């Protein structure tokens, strides 16, 4: 009994230090995002005043400006169209390919898809830009969706293949004996059983397309510009309207952050895919 | 019909992906290669002119290219080295925690999923010499302030700090996933054998985590070489050319100056750099892993 009591203070002390360190690391992680959030509710005068760092009268003027003066509604719709389109197409193309890689050991294809992940996307974009210009297709949703497929397709294949591979073959073989075709068993067995993996891959594909800047910079026009372009164009307006810019930044990252918090388990497992398998 | 489909299912299933890759990846690369031997300003009236190796000669004799080349390599080496050390250290620290893991993971997740352009804008505000948080802190602790992104001397390290903030969580989360995959019994038996905390980490955890850490480094190296969004949205490569990496330099040549031939030659060089680094790294990784296995 006495012994226990003697160890305790030291242990509690260590534990407190440990948690202080942990909280500090987490705080550093969040500072820039919290800074963005607080500045988005400040007037430009308050942003410039260090004394008003924590205590200030919040205003939603910046947000109103983002939607009226800078008309952010259209870019939001554009971003939704492009991200959804790219994710749906990537699933349509990628899921069967992932199945073929998992079941028929198409290692060459998997290597090629890995190469697409490695090669800088801008390498393809110069010819794309030239070809799309000739076809008068720059600035169309099609060109943006196709460009985002370059990221989404490898991502879907990369994440879903191990899920398909982990489903025992016997399940499918039983279905084949009952007269099911491969296509049927793919739809009825493989996809439902891999739903968490597919969901993970789809969320990530959506987030990447939503966040993508380079493709929009090169291929979008003023009517199809996505949110990253809209935010980027903000700084070309005369003097930087910091409050408005931060409100715009919140509008674009807000949805991604809410989705990531709500579906944390899936997003983390997708981003760390390949960690355990090596 | 149904039988034919069943028999050839693996081709039917892979066809869309293969066609997409041939059409949208392979063909463009070959087109870029061809264009890299030409001079062309994207004008409809003036056709492409074959100039042989002139674009490459021009690039390799241009100090702006070599600056961008070494900046790309240094940026990758420094950022990924720091991210790996910090990421592994934080993961080892947090690996012991069994409660609140969801909240902790979420906090680390946010920097890497936040939209890069928005992240760039926030850091632009933080780095602002007069109203930014960075100089405010420096002033508070009595250190000299910095021009951060505004000066060619400090822009490189300022950008690396952003990269570290954004991507250390990636290494950390991957290693954390690796730790939870290890299971507790290995540590228990080592503890019974009298291993202390330090030995547990260096002799057991790190060797077992080596494949995971190497994988994290590979993914980080590939992405760090290609960094574009953060740099372009904060500095567009400036001041002057002082924060241009190969990606930004290629982009500027193609879409700001419309030197399509020179840009293509740059892209081919950039492509080769990334590929060589990736292959070298994978060979190295295979070698390290073999050593750990034996």
Describe the fold and architecture.
The complex is a heterodimer of chains A (278) and B (294). With 278 residues, chain A is mainly α. Chain A has a domain at 71-234: MetI-like (MetI-like fold, Orthogonal Bundle). Helices cover 78% and strands 0% of the residues of chain A. Chain A has 14 helices and no strands. Chain A has helices at residues 2-40, 44-48, 61-68, 73-104, 107-118, 122-134, 141-166, 169-177, 182-193, 195-211, 214-219, 227-234, 242-262, 264-271. Chain A is flat, with a radius of gyration of 24 Å. Chain A starts with a helix and ends in a 7-residue tail after the last helix. Chain B is an all-alpha fold. Chain B folds into two domains: 1-26, no CATH class; 70-258, Orthogonal Bundle (MetI-like fold), CATH 1.10.3720.10. Chain B is 74% helix and 1% strand. Chain B contains 13 helices and two strands, in the order ααββααααααααααα. In chain B, strands 1-2 form a two-stranded antiparallel ribbon. In chain B, α3 (54-60) packs across α13 (260-293), α8 (155-182) crosses α10 and α10 packs antiparallel against α13. The termini of chain B are far apart. The mean pLDDT of chain B is 88. The chains are: A mainly alpha (278), B mainly alpha (294). At the A-B interface, α1, α4, α5, α6 and α7 of A face α1, α2, α4, α5 and α6 of B.
- The level of helicity of chain B is over 70%
Helix and strand content put the structural class of chain A at: mainly alpha
Mean pLDDT of chain B: 88
Radius of gyration of chain B: 24 Å
Strand content of chain A: under 5%
Extended strand count of chain B: 2
| Largest sheet properties of chain B | 2 strands, antiparallel
Structural class of chain B: mainly alpha
Rounded mean pLDDT score of chain A: 86
- Strand numbers in spatial order across the main sheet of chain B: 1-2
Distance between the termini of chain A: 47 Å
Main location (chain A): membrane
Membrane topology (chain A): Multi-pass membrane protein
Keywords (chain A): Cell membrane, Membrane, Transmembrane, Transmembrane helix, Transport
Transmembrane segments (chain A): 12-35, 76-102, 109-132, 144-165, 186-207, 213-235, 242-263
